[in-house]
Amino acid sequence: MKKGRSPLPDAPLPGLGEAPLFPPAAETAEPHYHGHRERLRQRFAEAEGRLPDYELLELILFRSIPRRDVKPLAKALIARFGSLAEVLGAPIARLREIDGVSDGVAGDLKIVEAAGHRLAKGGIAKRPVLSTSAALIDYCRSTMAFAEREIFRILFLDTKNGLIADEVQQRGTVNHTPVYPREVVKRALELSATALILVHNHPSGDPSPSSADVSMTRTIADVAGPLGIVVHDHIIIGRDGHVSLKAQRLF
Question: Ranges for the MPN domain (predicted)?
Fold first, then answer.
């Protein structure tokens, strides 16, 4: 053996036919959240009504974000907005303020919101509205309770109190919506409606009617009455509940 040359090792070096001494972790290992997703889906199938809001939100986010643990994002959204309904009702711009909410995720949430509105509207669409008061309130709450600005909508009814049209007449500020009684009655005549239900929301959460709400309702009723159009009710929707001006005998 010549000086200066070390003998060959007895075993081949890594990379020459043998596995490395410290192999990297398997890249195909299943992410930890996969098992959680399957368990949550199973719990939903067994008891959907008992899942907390953040877990229902997780189930929605599963399809929007297929390769990430979405529990932290679901909890962050609930913490910011307060409930699943308020998350779905939040404007896209505010949803995007949450880290992890892309345009796609925000868009998916708004699709779920729109589907919920259609579902609630189905409860009043083909039946006399006045005989489905609970469904009417559910529909109004789903569409308006968590809006950040006032919305004034009108349900136009036929002679059997069936729904002809549901239209948003005005969108206002956080505490005011301009309403023009003549425009309301004009639209009722265009649709051949014989009755109206007025609905608007209070973004503050408190559905208590203001003096302006009462005055506006009386004015519309006074203008519509001589033309054979009845104002059945004016319902004010808030996060904390709703108030019927008719039930309160305010007009």
Answer: 129-251
- The whole-angstrom distance between residue 135's C-alpha and the CA centroid of its chain comes to 17
If pLDDT is split at 50, 70 and 90, which confidence band does 71 have? very high
CA-CA distance, 148 to 12, in Å (whole number)? Answer: 71
Contact 53, 84 (CB under 8 A): yes
59, 109 Cβ separation under 8 angstroms:
no
Distances 13 to 8, 9, 20, 25, 249 between C-alpha atoms, Å: 10, 8, 8, 20, 92
> Would you give the DSSP letter of residue 131?
G
pLDDT confidence of residue 37? 85
Q: Where in the chain is the domain with CATH 3.40.140.10?
A: 128-244
List C-alpha distances in Å: 165 to 116, 175, 185, 198.
18, 26, 14, 12
pLDDT at residue 53 greater than cutoff 50: yes
Which residue is listed with tokens 């208590």?
208
Looking at residue 22, what is its pLDDT?
Answer: 47
Residues with Cβ within 8 Å of 38's Cβ and at least 6 positions away in sequence, in order, are: none
**Segments of the chain assigned to CATH 1.10.150:** 33-117
Q: How long a stretch of residues is the chain? A: 251
CATH number of 33-117: 1.10.150
Res 153: pLDDT: 94
Q: How many CB atoms lie within 10 A of CB 121?
A: 17
Q: How far is CA 198 from CA 96, 153, 218, in A?
A: 33, 6, 11
Q: What is the mean pLDDT of residues 220-248?
A: 95
